[in-house]
Amino acid sequence: MKQIQTAFYVKEDVLNIARSLIGMKLMTNIGGRLTGGIIAETEAYAGVHDKASHAYGGRKTVRTEVMYREGGIAYVYFSYGMHHLFNVVTAGAGIPHAVLIRGIIPQVGVDWQLKRRKQEMIRPQLVNGPAKLCQALGITLQQNTISLLGDSVWIEQGEKINIADIITCRRVGVDYAGKDALLPYRFVLKHDSYRTAKIN
DNA sequence: ACACCGATTATCT
DNA sequence: GATAATCGGTGTA
Questions:
Q1: Which of A71, A150, A167, A188 has the most CB within a 10 Å radius?
Q2: Closest protein CA to C1' of nucleotide B10, residue
Q3: What pLDDT, on the 0 to 100 scale, is given for residue A124?
Q4: What is the CA A111 to C1' C10 distance in angstroms?
Q5: pTM exceeding 0.70
Q6: Which nucleotide has the least CA–C1' distance to A82?
Q7: Residue A171 half-sphere exposure, CB side, CA atoms within 13 Å?
């Protein structure tokens, strides 16, 4: 079994999971195309107490219901009328934790990733954002709620990362969360040549 | 380098 | 009817 197993996803320390995901490989096999890359940037969303989380205050809607399920599944949502964002649901059932994947280093099926992104060359802007990597890997609302233990979208062991090579900083685009926008819930791989995003 | 802004629609209130 | 865990293009320097 190459897929990371349920025991990893159901832990309650979402920050630790978000940091541990750095260096692992996010893989998709969608439309007969095998694509993937090393996870280089993540953000933790810590459920009901985190003002930046879609589940803040126990908010439960058609969209966010998936966050309350047992960890190890995908939470994909559609934003700004044109972008898909991919999260890993974590913790046990009833605890709506999630980790947003914000950047990868393309590794598998790079030609398909370029094609999906309508680009010719491998450049930082290929996959250095949450909506960009979804487009490159073919992730859409179709993948919402699917198990990460299946053979369509999954995470597998990747490179061993030294903890000193991970930058911890503030999350992006969550100003509406007030004080919680300042929390150090974002993890970024140092020396990622595909990253151009600013570190706060 | 950085600031500004328009695109476009599922989902929520 | 309003909002949005973004992106890419344009403009100024």
A1: A71
A2: A78
A3: 86
A4: 29
A5: yes
A6: B8
A7: 27
